């Protein structure tokens, strides 16, 4: 009995030591267990420092701007604004001028416009290229389907022609019937050679 009690105590102490070792392993350095990542739930989105935007809506706006930049209306309005700018800064009183003769501010505005217009036009072109690529892929798939359909129909027509070649036509049946009638007439004449004379007398 004493030996059994001693074995039970040893087992109990070993189990406690195992629990303690696993607890120390599972816990971190601070004594706090780290939170486990659950696989049955999606991860929380990471925080981003940059603001998020919808690329599709941004692309649509950029296409509209690029289309407006490529119209005659934009050129007319730009010419009118530049002419008014230059005339105002030349003929207006000195206190009301905001951009004197070298027109540095006007040059800065035009350079900013060009620097923004070029990427917008490139973005619109890239979107158009993507649409053209998708359309080409769809046209290619449609052409492949139409080619497969035509090949299938041509095989079916060829099989129908081969089947119709073995079918008895009306002319063939008529010729066979005529040959049978001739054979019957010849047999009847061979059996009854005077039958033809009797037919002539009756007629």
From TrEMBL:
<dbReference type="InterPro" id="IPR010406">
    <property type="entry name" value="DUF1003"/>
</dbReference>
<keyword id="KW-0812">Transmembrane</keyword>
<protein>
    <recommendedName>
        <fullName>DUF1003 domain-containing protein</fullName>
    </recommendedName>
</protein>
<keyword id="KW-1133">Transmembrane helix</keyword>
<feature type="region of interest" description="Disordered">
    <location>
        <begin position="1"/>
        <end position="46"/>
    </location>
</feature>
<feature type="transmembrane region" description="Helical">
    <location>
        <begin position="74"/>
        <end position="91"/>
    </location>
</feature>
<feature type="transmembrane region" description="Helical">
    <location>
        <begin position="103"/>
        <end position="123"/>
    </location>
</feature>
<feature type="compositionally biased region" description="Basic and acidic residues">
    <location>
        <begin position="27"/>
        <end position="43"/>
    </location>
</feature>
<dbReference type="Pfam" id="PF06210">
    <property type="entry name" value="DUF1003"/>
</dbReference>
<keyword id="KW-0472">Membrane</keyword>
